[in-house]
UniProtKB/TrEMBL annotation:
Protein name: Cephalosporin-C deacetylase
Residue ranges, annotated region (Disordered): 120-143
Membrane-spanning residues: none
Gene3D superfamilies registered for this protein in UniProt: alpha/beta hydrolase
Gene Ontology annotations of biological process type: polysaccharide metabolic process
Record domain Acetyl xylan esterase: where: 2-319
Residues reported in the UniProt entry to bind substrate: 91
Pfam families: AXE1
Organism this protein belongs to: Phytohabitans suffuscus
Length: 324
């Protein structure tokens, strides 16, 4: 069933933002520190058994200089100056295997898939990147409340920093045209793409697909599904921490990143999505500060458009990047 506002109200839904005064300074200092701690990335040829794609096992420096894994795929034998999609993974998943990520290289792109620190044991896509800086203090099972009383210790500070460094790693690769790099992902990956879109200048496009990590307080008020339910559970137990929780989350809200976007975006939303409710997606979409479009999947839940959305994304980028 439809789980949120009617579509005509969603299209106009543009809530006030609660961006902290030091939002820009917080992220500038965070990213500068990560760059200062970075080692050169490595791209090790990986024997995937695939005949049409070259695969490299990637290690790059993320938050705190921590090593982060990934895959780099490109059409077999490709020369330089390829457009590149940097893709982020949904909640609980890791980088999986190269076989899981063939669409973009088949479409002629270089493709960097970032592993998700500390995740990848959720039963679907395995991961290979630990989180060396696990925050102390009580938290709900999962990742949403790890370090949530302090923005400097919050889990998503580390993960969003990793994502920016993934884009910078892709841009430095000799096969990649640094002016045609795209940030993409679904669910948590879409929320990470929103953050990257607000933190990185000069992206060619951003593709947030049914994005998570947006408009947190409303999400906790209108859905009892995980992962937002992790916040609800924490606040249920720590009644005196509620405002501190949401003060921290202002630094990590896709709505606030959207207001700093400079690249065109193609969003998607599913009107029966009770995991990432439509109004939370439209809150980010309607604050997106650059050119934008959205695909609406009326009778879908959190699966969204799946490969139909991928077809839309390929067409969107073909027109935007003037590809054959």
């Amino acid at each position: 069933m439809f789980v949120d506002l009617p579509l005509e109200q969603l299209r106009a839904y543009r809530p006030e933002r609660g961006e902290p005064d030091d939002f820009g300074a917080f992220w500038t200092a965070t990213l500068d520190a990560a760059r200062a701690a970075a080692a050169p990335p490595t791209f090790t040829p990986y024997h995937s058994g695939l005949s049409t794609v070259d695969v490299h096992d990637v290690t790059f420096s993320g938050f705190g200089g921590h090593p982060v894994k990934g895959w780099f795929l490109a059409p077999r034998g490709a020369a330089g100056s390829l457009p590149c999609v940097v893709e982020f993974v949904g909640y609980g998943g890791g980088r999986g295997l190269p076989l899981d990520w063939l669409a973009w290289s088949a479409a002629g792109y270089a493709h960097l898939v970032m592993d998700t620190r500390g995740q990848g044991s959720g039963g679907w896509l395995p991961g290979d990147t630990p989180d060396p800086e696990e925050s102390g203090g009580p938290h709900s099972p999962g990742f949403m409340t790890r370090g949530v009383l302090d923005p400097h210790r919050y889990y998503y500070r580390r993960l969003f920093t990793d994502a920016v460094r993934a884009v910078e790693t892709a841009r430095a690769h000799p096969l990649v045209d640094a002016t045609r790099v795209v940030a993409a992902g679904a669910s948590q990956g879409g929320g990470i793409a929103l953050a990257v879109g607000g933190l990185v200048d000069g992206l060619a496009a951003v593709l947030p697909d049914v994005p998570f990590l947006c408009h947190y307080r409303r999400a906790t008020e209108i859905t009892d599904k995980a992962p937002y339910y992790e916040l609800t559970t924490y606040c249920k137990s720590h009644r005196d921490h509620v405002e501190r929780v949401f003060d921290t989350l202002r630094y990590f809200d896709g709505v606030n990143f959207a207001a700093h976007a400079t690249a065109p975006a193609l969003f998607s939303v599913a009107l029966m999505d009770d995991v990432c409710p439509p109004s939370t997606v439209y809150a980010a979409y309607n604050h997106w500060a650059a050119a934008k479009d959205i695909r609406v999947w009326s009778y879908n839940g959190h699966e969204g458009g799946q490969n139909v959305q991928r077809v839309e994304q390929i067409a969107f980028l073909r027109d935007l990047l003037k590809l054959p």
